[in-house]
Design brief:
Elements: E1 13-15, E2 26-29, H1 31-39, E3 48-53, E4 58-66, E5 71-79, E6 85-92, H2 96-108, E7 111-117, H3 134-148, E8 155-159, H4 162-173, E9 178-182, E10 188-189, E11 198-202, H5 210-218, E12 222-225, H6 233-244
Parallel strand pairs: 1-3, 6-7, 6-11, 7-8, 9-11, 9-12, 10-12
Antiparallel strand pairs: 2-5, 3-4, 4-5
Helix pairs in contact: 2-3, 2-6
Bound molecules: S-adenosyl-L-homocysteine.
Length: 246
Amino acid sequence: MPVRLTRQTMNQILLFDEDFTSHKDHVRLSGRRLNHLKEVTRIAEGDRLKAGHLNGLQGEAHVLRLKRDAVELEVNLTEPPPAPLPLTLVLALPRPKVLNRVIICATSMGVKQIVLLNAVRVEKSFWQSPRLSKENLFRQRVLGLEQAKDTILPEIRLEKRFKPFVEDNLAQLTQGTIPLVAHPYDAEPCPLEIKEPVTLAVGPEGGFIPYEIEKLKEVGFSSVSMGERILRVESAIAALIARLYP
Ligand code: SAH
């Protein structure tokens, strides 16, 4: 028999308020999650799965009934989700093709505050992408939470104007945090295992321009490097976070 290559598996089913039926602790799922549970996880009645309630507790789900168009689960959610990462990510808006991966990556690593920021090397057209729709940004964060067995939805802010955001909002956002900009030129090595919260700025695929680095430095940022190899945005984010909070 040929080996069936499955898609990425959902490590935890994320439940929304509207999934809960009038019967306490019972949920009914259809659509994407039902298809996934049937085709990828291949559940059967009686199985037990990991489940979490969006912005709430997590625990176990017991498959009560599996029908063609819906699955009914009984849930017992008593555990808190994993601790959030004390890191705010200020990210120059990446290409639409890369955006989904980056949101999933940051969410699965535990980032709870994401600012998507304009920069000179962000193409204007990126801001028109349907991937910036509320629905898509929500969906990608849900995928990240399911991946990492987390329940707390990160906040995403869109900031289309670099200079006013940096001058007027960033000083407040960085209060009580260490502001670092990932920029492998004229930089200190990225600190290892930091105890304090961090605001981390990551550049566009073409990098920040010197003026932008100057502006960030004016509000207290210092540049940090991961070495001379230039990484792709999502690899850079994963590598930086793994180093700051191992
Ligand atoms: N062509 C650009 C590369 C940008 S890579 C340049 O040469 O500057 C996209 C972003 O990822 C960078 O702006 C930076 O924030 C981050 N990054 C990539 N590699 C890095 C490294 N080795 N150290 C620190 N940051 C890095």
